[in-house]
Amino acid sequence: MSAKIIDGKAIAAQIRSELTERISELKRKGITPRLAAVLVGDDPASAVYVGTKKKTADAMGMASEVIERPARTSFAELETLIRELNARKDLHGYIVQSPLPDHLDEAALVDLIDPAKDIDGFHPENVGAMTLGFPRFLPCTPAGIVELLVRSGIKIPGTETVILGRGNIVGRPMSILLSLKSPKGDSTVTLCHSRTRDLAAHCRRADILILAMGRPESVTGDMIKPGATVIDVGINRVDDSSTPKGYRLVGDAHFPSVSEVAGAITPVPGGVGPMTVAMLMSNTVMAAEAQTSRP
Do both 150 and 105 map to the same domain? Predict the structure, then answer.
């Protein structure tokens, strides 16, 4: 058996195309959706992520900006910046790129963001609305995974889903979304973590297996139910002297063995990553529409 490859790049392009008309409609009203990213410090990966988001927004005809601050920036200085961004009428949504320097309380900063501009979907008010089944902005990676499944024709209701990783960015919100009473939910979800016993046994039960642990190639083909759908969120750098850069990117799945057993699988890279950016664009357009409709 050879698994179907779920092409995140192609599905993300489809979503961006669908957003184009909504952006055009806003522009006909004199409104250009605008997003911003606050980048604190000089983390190279964060700079790449933010650059990709800005490039995507610009290519779609939206406005974007990157607000850079040095790593030594204090909590009080960032609080002032966030309050300024909350008050800006021309700015519809923004993110504070993580990870932040260790001296900054990330949760406290997220709590300061106006929930109506929280296009990352991390504010407690938006998380609570999602949990109750009345979402406004969904966290981008979990929302992107749901779209990958739906647009690939993979049934969710009635399935057994196993998620490896209970983080607040992917694992925990993913478990909430897939367990909601919804055509895009109604799955029976098991959330596994570092204290889970017999992880392989849980994996073998899964119709849908979502990997978000950050452990390179740790899930192997003998852990997969034949025909299961595997969504690999992991992006791990491993040394490889045979490549020009001296390393390669791999997921949490051992792709050669897993793809021989699974029915469908996302590649790394090119699977979940493009969907995360596409859903951030979707949340920005949604924010602009909501703010435009206010009396």
Answer: no
Strand 4-5 and strand 188-192: pairing? unpaired
- Residue 67 counted as domain residue: yes
Tokens of 74: 């204090």
> Cis ω on the peptide bond leading into residue 139 (within 30° of 0)?
no
Q: What is the pLDDT of residue 1?
A: 60
Give 146-191 pLDDT, tens digit per residue.
999 999 999 999 999 999 999 999 999 999 999 999 999 999 999 9
Contact 211, 251 (CB under 8 A): yes
- pLDDT tens for each residue of 141-152: 999 999 999 999
- Hey, which bits of the chain come out as E strands? 4-5, 34-40, 63-69, 93-96, 160-164, 188-192, 208-211, 229-232, 236-239, 247-250, 264-265
Number of domains in the chain: 2
Residue type, 39: L
Q: Are 19 and 283 in contact (CB under 8 A)?
A: no
Pairing status of strand 247-250 against strand 236-239: antiparallel
| Residues noted as catalytic | 53, 97, 120
